Here is the input.
Amino acid sequence: MTPSIAGIHHVTAFCGEPNRNADFYVGLLGLRLVKFTVNHDDTSTLHLYYGDYQGTPGTNLTFFPKTDPEEAGEFGAGQTRETAYAIRPASLEYWRQRLRENDIAFDENRRFDDTVLSVSDPDEINIELVATDTADDADITPWADSPVMPEHQLRGFYGVTLAVDDAEPTERVLTDSLGYERIGASDNRIRLRAEGAAPASIVDIAETDLGRGKMGIGTVHHVAFSVDDLEHQDEVRRALIDAGLSPTDSIDRRYFQSIYCREPGGTLFEFATMSPGFTADEDLKKLGMTLVLPEWLEDKRDEIEASIPDFTPPS
Here is the structure.
């Protein structure tokens, strides 16, 4: 039996200067910085998480800042081309005006009957705002202190677009191993949706003739999908192995347990549990205000603080 995936848990990318990154995602898009920590695999690298008020799975875009220009990435096949957030259709004019007032260039188009506003962040990562009737289906918690009014705040992810050189093997893994179904195709784009059509359930696949991308500033590192718990995660792991892929063992990421697997097109997938969440080590009201480290890194705090780039959490 094919395990079903509810949708996207989070998306993680590489950015440049971290304060500039926070200005865009908090100051412009109105997300909350819900965790200020480090990459557990490279403690000299910050890890910043932006989401709704409590960092609900399905709302979090996370970043590894890199301040050396030589660490610039190069977009290509095997990467995420666009990360899309849902907004209410009634919020469309608000976002047009907000982008204009902040001198943010954007494109507007129609795709599968939805209006899409497309922008680039300061590091040229593609972000989309999709005005969709499903926006209110998302179980998010608005952030009262956001610069964006609660009724116009982003409603969590809508989906992602994966760029690959051949769509068929990627589509086969998503449909045969993860329970997605094809619901449409248009303009060199195949649209898949997770079973149950929950929020954050869309994955588009677009073929590209670009060579394999290079990870670094301005590119997405991985897309994480939600699994209910460790039992569900193990079901997914076995399905991936049956498909001839090589998922990792489960890894403790403090706020969720994860496995990783590179799909045939080259995109790195993660499968992350829904709990324990970001209040595992901080009070809800204080999320993102100070550098937090997992217990196994706390004795290296002085060394870590000396190695990471300067960053001032948004107030």
